Amino acid sequence: MPARLVVLVSGTGTNLQALLDASTDPAYGATVVAVGADRVGTPAVRRAREAGVPVFELPLAQGADRAEWDAELADRVSSFDPDLVVLAGFMKLTGPAFLARFGGRTINTHPALSPSFPGMHGPQDALAYGVKVTGATLFVVDEGVDTGPILAQTPVRVLDDDTSESLHERIKAAEQEMLVATVGRIARHGFTVNGRRVTIA
Ligand code: GRF
Fold this sequence. Notes:
The chain is of the alpha/beta class. It has a domain at 3-103: Rossmann fold (3-Layer(aba) Sandwich). Helices cover 35% and strands 25% of the residues. It is built from six helices and nine strands, in the order βαβαβαβαβαββαββ. The strands form two sheets. A seven-stranded mixed beta sheet has the order 3-2-1-4-5-6-7. Strands 8-9 form a two-stranded antiparallel sheet. α1 (14-22) packs parallel to α6 (164-189) and α3 runs parallel beside α4 (96-102). The longest helix has 26 residues, at 164-189. The chain binds 5-O-phosphono-beta-D-ribofuranosylamine (GRF). The site of 5-O-phosphono-beta-D-ribofuranosylamine has 15 residues, from α1, β5 and α6.
């Protein structure tokens, strides 16, 4: 049986699309069983619908209780019985209730080489700092912001005439390749975390 993926999204869903495309091959070892979004009407959710994948949209209303939202998110995800939860451009932090149920099997992708430039503006921060190489990082989610044990990283060269948009576009291309390859390996072989070090069997 292929590993069951629930993918959480907020935006354009190009990382999601890469997973949807990869999982059409039975040898890939994983299938997207549901997509959840923290916003209504995202392009990512449209992509899921087009692929015939069940979706749920769970925005966090202004002034709403964050812990309740987090618990509801965990319930919705749980109803699809995932082996692995993939945060693919999901712009919210998962909280204690979520991690109590899905910690150790929730992974996230970040458009910078951790531990540099955590947070919402990885490409922009890397460009502003003047680094010559940045990239993307796939990690096991913990309580911090982009701090969890690292599953994979991929480098991307910064060009002299880059804007944060052009840089982010190249990072996303490398990020998708890394995400697809690594999720497939995890689905087929599993992974172990030993302190900060992760091994994919
Ligand atoms: C990715 O670069 C992700 O790492 C970042 O936002 C982007 C999401 O892109 N947090 P998409 O929604 O998968 O197209």
